[in-house]
Amino acid sequence: MSAIRYRDPVDPKDYTRYASWVRQLVGRSGTYVIRDAGTRLVLYVGESHTGRLHSTLTRHFQGWEGFTAGTTYDRFGVEVAVTALDGPSRGVVNTQVQLIRELEPTDNTHHTGDLDLGEDESFDPDDFADDW
Hints:
The chain is α+β, with helices and mostly antiparallel strands. It has a domain at 20-109: GIY-YIG endonuclease. Helices cover 19% and strands 15% of the residues. It is built from 3 helices and 3 strands, in the order αββαβα. β1 (30-36) and β2 (42-48) form a beta hairpin. The longest helix has 15 residues, at 89-103.
């Protein structure tokens, strides 16, 4: 896999806003990696293959509760990389699985085993759909 570029998710001119590159993720699909900005330890790898990359990523920087709640990070203490932008659903999910295996993020609890999506014709993106 080619190198991925980590960036600050916060707008450097207005700390109350997300960086312009994050705001440009609205309506897009892709895979994202969150790492600690100080230690560079990879914390989490996620994806959205349903055109909700912006909201899927930024919810990690806000308080959220309920069945779909996940890990929250201090947006001032992390860096984020995005990849597989606007790829087919299978490609986005496969990229997430591959990155989890390669980067071994501390906070992922899924896709660490022998999952292989391969070219299975029965692939159904709804099997990976967000429930929120």
